[in-house]
Fold this protein.
Amino acid sequence: MKIEYDILFEVELVHEYRDGGGGDFLPEPTPSCRRALDDYGLVFRRNGGGFSVWYEYYTDATGKHPVRPMEDGAVFSFAVMPSSPYLLNYSELPLTGKGIYQMDNLNANLRDGKLLLTSDTASSLITGKDRIELKPRFFDYTFETPKRSAEISVSDSLGKEVLRKRVIVNQGVFSCPVDLRRCPPGRFVLKIDGADPLEFYGDDWLAGKGAFAVIDIFKSPNVDALCRFTDGNGDAAKKRYTMKAGARKAFWRYYVVFKNRQSIDPAELTIEHPGGVTFSNEPEKTLSGGSVALPLVSGAAIPFKMKTVKGIKLKKTGAGQFDVENLPNPAPSTLVPDSSGKIYSEVFIYI
């Protein structure tokens, strides 16, 4: 009997910042996933645009079969680490708030021929709807209530109840330890008297990693047939899943600092963008060092791209006209939000 390996499933990790290319994310199996991979003889391989999981198979007259068939209930979890400290800055995601982005193959989210791991079926991108609070698997849940007692229950990603008990309220304060250490890491819903006050991802290892996201790939009857990586016989049905992040759009603001040309009329300065983006002048601003700067701001928000936009030009018209070619692009390293919710990226030009 000849033993060989083939892909069981693969995950494509892409970002619009690189025009769909990879390199923004560093995936790795969680400790519980590594144990599951070992149990089933699976191999994790990272590639430039994501990762794949390979299975060992043998071939007979009926086809290819896993050497170690996978049981229902198996889950493979992968931490997605950021490759850049500015990942959130150039991603079209909320800048405030805590948590981790959690995605899985339970949503049957098919768009443009791709099986998406994100939860918002109206979008092909990661959104704020995918963000969830990250907690260890043992913590205290406390809140104030006029009730004498309250019932707490916790269910896992597949809807299985893993904890239920009634707690006596002491002096108006409900306080209960939530101990899920006997449960595998994953997504949980905590309910108080049937209401859903908390949805969280419980994982002690992830809680200290600073991960951007976690991806859970389930082998379960709860998974839509479209997204299952095995067929009814338990044989591999190779699947390719996609996690895609959008590029943040920001208004570009060029501060033209009058350092050596104090007599320039601001009305004679314009910026030409090869993509046709128009820029308008804002009132002059005196900087902390006493220099005067003219802000020129794009009329529309522009997506951040790793590839530099070339050919942006500062033009001076009228007497003593001149051009400054190939202005630098504002970088996502520093973002400046205003009170209206607009986000700016700024760069200084000295003339």
